[in-house]
Structure formats: C-alpha cells, structure tokens
Amino acid sequence: VEVLRGSYGALYGSSAIGGVVNLVSRRGEGPGEFRLSAEGGSFLSHREVFSGSGGDGDADWSFGIAESGTEGPEDRERFRSRSFSGLFGASVAGDGRAEVAVRWLDSTAEDPYDFGNPLPPDDNVRRERQVAAVGLSEPIVEVRLLP
C-alpha cells in the first residue's frame, strides 16, 4: 500500500489533488497455496476470507475473496461488504510481462439517523456502493527490426 497525501497525489493525475492510495497486489510465487479464515463477534459480526497465490517464472496469480458484516448494536445499523481482488501475470516474448489486475466491491450500510426530518423514520435509509475496476499492464517487449 502506497499513500500519497495532498498535492503529491498529482503524480497520478490532475484529479488526485487530495491524495492517492495506491494498492499494489502481491505477485504469487511457488506452488499454489490457499488460505481460509473466519471470524465472528457480537451483533452477528463476521468476516470470512479465502485467498490463494502461486506461480513460477512463466506465470503467476494471486486473489482474495472476502465478506464481512454486522447487524449493529442498534436498529438499522446493518453493514455488509463483499470484495474480490486478483492479479494475474505472465511472461511475454522473453523478458516482457503482461498483467491483469481486477478489483470488485459491493457494500451496503444502513443509517439509523434521519437528521431531524419531521417525517416518520425511513427504514430504507442506507448507503450502497458498487465498484469494479480492471487494469491491464502493457507488455514490456523490445522489438528489433533487422534489415
């Protein structure tokens, strides 16, 4: 994780004036390895994570799938989040490399506050967020034209 605060974020474009959080997925290496973890707590809080990685000199992969949520201590404080991230790479034309990075997030958070609204409380006040991103790296290949 790389965090650039303030104007340093402009290195990533003119829209990044407040800063940037750059997430770099770890490349897999070695034989395929998988991990599974589960946690639980009060208010039906939970978190489950399944991840894996592997690779050799020609290709590598890593991914993580997670779900978390809670019912919250009060009415209408439910939260749920599901996410996926992955990095898949391979050698291209000898010394070149191509990568595909994938990230997906789906989350919902209910809000128990109606901010002084004189109307009856709305049971449907909540925030939802769905984000998907796919990134491709260019192959780094030197091309020589011979006469």
| Major sheet | 6 strands, antiparallel
* Rg computed from alpha carbons, rounded to a whole number of angstroms: 21 Å
Strand order of the largest sheet: 3-4-5-6-7-8
Please estimate the helix content: under 10%
**Poorly predicted regions:** 139-147
From N to C, what is the helix and strand string?
EEEEEEEE
Whole-number average pLDDT? 79
Shape descriptor reads flat
Structural class call reads: mainly beta
Q: Treating each run of at least 4 consecutive H or I residues as one helix, how many helices? A: 0
How many β-strand runs? 8
Beta strand %: over 45%
End-to-end distance? 46 Å
Q: Can you give keywords for this protein?
A:
147 residues, mainly beta, six-stranded antiparallel sheet, two-stranded antiparallel sheet, 8 strands, 55% strand, disordered C terminus
What does this protein structure show overall?
The protein is flat, with a radius of gyration of 21 Å. The chain contains no helices and 8 strands. Strand 5 and strand 6 form a beta hairpin. The N and C termini lie far apart (46 Å). The strands form 2 sheets. The protein has a 6-stranded antiparallel β-sheet with strand order 3-4-5-6-7-8, with no helix packed on it. Strands 1-2 form a two-stranded antiparallel sheet. It is mainly β.
